[in-house]
């Protein structure tokens, strides 16, 4: 996705298309009486008009213009022709071709003393040098363009030159400098009165924030672009901005929000366009991450078709996507075929930016086939990539391949280089992987003390990761609980104000009343009686609530103590086994600690929901979403625990099934039901299914676990808090989850049905 975004930094520069209709320009060319200079203008205008929709068509008209310009005396129009040639070649990453055209345009400018166009020629020459990775030379040339345009008062070209300089610093990963130049470009463009043109550097600035991981800042910029582009009818950049926002939501796991922006981007695009290509690309990427590989393949092919029609360079990305998809499907030969096609296209158009990623994927496919020697040879170009992440992955993967070949010294060299980059980026998983395989290599080389050191570092890294996850969970729920308390306080203050207003109204009414003392006394008596009845009811409700609260906190304090104590002592246990060098034991204990943290998280989730219900501030927020995606997410929470107990978990739902419900509430209900199913099942099956049942949706959780007696079923139907029995692996619970489920379903006006047989299992149907 990021390479796609970078390519737009060139494609989006010529935002404004000239108003000349294409048919009119073609009519000019077809007229034999039109002079050659006018035909040259027509070719140039046609080339420019196709720049944003089809680079191949734009290039074809430019070639005609070049042929004609060569036969004419030098003029401002011939300068424009060679500038267009340079711009198109830069957009197609043909750096050598772009450099020649820009140098020709620059010579013509100087011969004709055209200081207005000269900065433009310098800018295109600088972009060509940038694409050839000659960054120092590129900076010198573009600096000249900025200085000359400032001298001649060309604010527009000065703005685009600042944009070009920002791209160079972005390529060098000097993002602070890049942002400075993008801001300068935007300021100059606005000063020049360019409303559409400033959208390009604004977009590019957003991409820098994307690379820095500042997704909120990137999203805010893209939403501004969408709003401004809509007002200015700039559909191309509006469409790709929708694509970037969709990509951000996808990275955050908010698939439904991502799909909304993709649909909006496609809706405003032409049938054959860059923005539609990005839309299909995003859809393919999302469905591939969701595991819906056949659907993903269909969108990859649509995206490839768009790329062939509008932007040949992008074919490399689409072919790479198809190759990665086949890799996930374990169709390794097909994966290698498409990855090789992608590399061939990238080389054809002079775009080597994704070569490192392609070689990593190809090496992975070869490694899965056991062809480690060929994989090592394939991975070479990735080690010299500009992006540190690719170099880090390449070193770690090469180290793994050498380790598989028992070439432990070579493996260590690559693993240490990858580890250094991973530590620099603070990437926990690659760090852990490097420590693990370094320990293996040193153990095989007989370096026992060094192997033990790496084992210790691996274990410490895993403990730190688990502790961080635990802290994040607790902090998240503390924040939610504090927010709910503040909301409750606000509602309480609002209630007090309403009571005060009521009291004022009552006092005014009493002053104005002409009723006799007898009527007043009668009303007072009735009021006192009503107050007495209300106080008695409140006392009964309070006594019941206190009893529930005491019982609840008794259960929670008991059940929370176990996992928290386990987490507190985990450090000592890890230290003991680290000293002994028991790596396999450490991995088993890590799993147990992870499960304990999951139990604490589930308990806190239930406690927070129950608290919100008791405070009266829980609000249902209905939204539409695909159940299959949602169900996969819920089952994933318990996949590890289920595997540990030999449980097969399946999801049975139509991929197109959409439901409208309180997503947060339904997540709480299903996580509690799945949690209980895992707890009371051993070496069995758990099935989550959903289907339409009239005007409702029936969601079913079925397990082959211990089952329940009839007396317990009767209490469950009433929503009682039960003392939870231990699970098949000694798991504990509070019984609070069922009361929450019961209250949420009643709140929605839904229905819940439970069928259970001892020794056979339990089936719970939820109708919403």
Structural write-up:
The protein is mainly alpha-helical and 768 residues long. Helices cover 73% and strands 6% of the residues. The chain has 31 helices and 7 strands. The strands form 2 sheets. Strands 2-4-5-7-6 form a 5-stranded mixed β-sheet. A two-stranded antiparallel sheet has the order 1-3.
Helices and strands in order, then pairings?
Layout (H helix, E strand, L loop, with lengths): L1 H10 L10 H9 L5 H14 L5 H16 L5 H16 L3 H17 L6 H14 L3 H18 L2 H17 L3 H17 L7 H13 L3 H17 L3 H17 L3 H13 L6 H16 L3 H18 L4 H14 L3 H17 L6 H14 L3 H7 L9 H17 L3 H18 L2 H18 L2 H65 L4 H64 L2 H33 L6 E5 H10 L2 H6 L3 E5 L5 E5 H17 L5 E9 L2 E8 L6 H8 L18 H13 L2 E7 L3 E7 L1
Parallel strand pairs: 2-4
Antiparallel strand pairs: 1-3, 4-5, 5-7, 6-7
Helix pairs in contact: 1-11, 2-3, 3-4, 3-5, 4-5, 5-6, 5-7, 6-7, 7-8, 7-9, 8-9, 9-10, 9-11, 10-11, 11-12, 12-13, 13-14, 13-15, 14-15, 15-16, 16-17, 17-18, 17-19, 18-19, 19-20, 19-21, 20-21, 21-22, 21-23, 22-23, 23-24, 24-25, 24-26, 25-26, 26-31, 29-31
Number of strands: 7
**Mean residue pLDDT:** 78
- Tell me the helix content: over 70%
- In spatial order, strands of the major sheet run 2-4-5-7-6
- Strand content range: 5-15%
Counting helices, strands and paired strands, the structural category is: mainly alpha
Rg for CA atoms: 33 Å
Number of helices: 31
Distance between the termini: 38 Å
Q: Per the principal axes of the C-alpha atoms, what is the gross shape?
A: globular
The unreliable regions are: 1-20
- Could you give a short account of the major beta sheet? 5 strands, mixed
């Amino acid at each position: 996705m990021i390479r796609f975004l970078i390519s737009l930094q060139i494609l989006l520069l010529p935002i404004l298309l000239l108003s000349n209709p294409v048919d009119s320009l073609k009519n000019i060319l077809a007229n034999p009486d039109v002079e050659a200079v006018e035909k040259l203008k027509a070719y140039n205008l046609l080339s420019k008009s196709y720049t944003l929709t089809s680079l191949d068509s734009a290039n074809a008209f430019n070639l005609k213009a070049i042929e004609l310009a060569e036969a004419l005396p030098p003029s401002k129009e011939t300068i424009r022709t060679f500038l267009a040639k340079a711009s198109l070649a830069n957009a197609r990453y043909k750096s050598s071709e772009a450099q020649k055209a820009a140098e020709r345009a620059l010579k013509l400018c100087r011969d004709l003393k055209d200081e207005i166009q000269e900065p433009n020629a310098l800018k295109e020459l600088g972009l060509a040098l940038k694409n050839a990775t000659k960054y120092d030379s590129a900076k010198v040339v573009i600096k000249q363009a900025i200085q000359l345009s400032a001298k001649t008062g060309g604010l527009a070209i000065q703005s685009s030159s600042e944009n070009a300089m920002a791209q160079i610093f972005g390529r060098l990963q000097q993002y602070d400098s890049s942002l400075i130049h993008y801001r300068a470009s935007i300021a100059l463009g606005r000063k020049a009165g360019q409303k559409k043109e400033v959208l390009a550097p604004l977009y590019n600035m957003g991409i820098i924030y994307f690379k820095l991981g500042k997704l909120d800042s990137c999203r805010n910029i893209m939403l501004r672009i969408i709003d401004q582009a809509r007002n200015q009818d700039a559909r191309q950049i509006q469409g790709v901005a929708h694509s970037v926002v969709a990509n951000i939501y996808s990275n955050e796991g908010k698939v439904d929000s991502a799909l909304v922006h993709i649909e909006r981007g496609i809706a405003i695009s032409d049938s054959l366009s860059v923005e539609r290509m990005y839309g299909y690309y995003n859809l393919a990427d999302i469905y591939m991450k969701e595991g819906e590989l056949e659907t993903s393949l269909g969108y990859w092919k649509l995206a490839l078709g768009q790329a062939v029609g509008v932007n040949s360079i992008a074919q490399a990305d689409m072919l790479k996507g198809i190759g990665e998809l086949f890799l996930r499907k374990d169709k390794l030969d097909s994966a290698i075929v498409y990855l090789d096609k992608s590399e061939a296209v990238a080389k054809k158009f002079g775009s080597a930016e994704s070569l490192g990623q392609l070689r990593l994927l190809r090496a992975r496919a070869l490694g899965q086939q056991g062809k480690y020697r060929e994989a090592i040879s394939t991975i070479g170009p990735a080690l010299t990539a500009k992006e540190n992440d690719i170099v880090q992955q390449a070193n770690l993967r090469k180290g793994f391949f050498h380790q598989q070949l028992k070439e432990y010294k070579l493996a260590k060299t690559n693993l240490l280089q990858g580890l250094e980059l991973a530590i620099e980026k603070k990437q926990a998983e690659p760090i852990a992987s490097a420590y693990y395989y370094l320990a293996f290599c040193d153990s095989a080389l007989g370096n026992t003390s060094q192997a033990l050191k790496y084992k210790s570092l691996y274990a410490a890294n895993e403990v730190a990761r688990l502790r961080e996850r635990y802290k994040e969970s607790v902090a998240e729920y503390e924040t939610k609980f504090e927010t709910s308390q503040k909301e409750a306080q606000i509602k309480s203050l609002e209630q007090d104000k309403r009571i005060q207003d009521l009291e004022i109204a009552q006092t005014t009414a009493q002053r104005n009343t002409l009723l006799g003392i007898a009527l007043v006394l009668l009303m007072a008596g009735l009021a006192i009686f009503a107050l007495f009845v209300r106080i008695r009811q409140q006392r009964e409700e309070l006594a019941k609530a206190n009893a529930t609260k005491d019982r609840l906190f008794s259960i929670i304090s008991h059940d929370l103590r176990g996992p928290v104590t386990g987490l507190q002592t985990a450090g000592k246990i890890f230290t003991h086994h680290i000293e002994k060098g028991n790596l396999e034991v450490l991995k088993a204990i890590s799993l147990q600690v992870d499960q304990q943290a999951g139990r604490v998280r589930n308990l806190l989730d239930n406690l927070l929901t129950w608290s919100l219900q008791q405070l009266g501030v829980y609000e249902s927020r209905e939204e539409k979403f695909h159940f299959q995606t949602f169900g996969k997410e819920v089952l994933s929470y318990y996949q590890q625990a289920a595997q540990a107990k030999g449980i097969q978990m399946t999801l049975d739902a139509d991929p197109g099934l959409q439901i409208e419900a309180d997503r947060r509430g339904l997540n709480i209900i299903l996580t509690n039901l799945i949690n209980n199913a895992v707890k009371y099942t051993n070496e069995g099956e758990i099935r989550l299914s959903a289907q339409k049942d009239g005007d409702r949706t029936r969601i079913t959780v079925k397990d082959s676990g211990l089952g329940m007696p009839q007396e317990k079923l009767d209490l469950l139907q009433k929503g009682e808090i039960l003392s939870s029995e231990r699970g098949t692996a000694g798991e504990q619970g509070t019984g609070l989850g069922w009361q929450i489920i019961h209250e949420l379903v009643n709140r929605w006006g839904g229905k819940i049905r439970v069928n259970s047989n001892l020794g056979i299992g339990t089936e719970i149907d939820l109708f919403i």
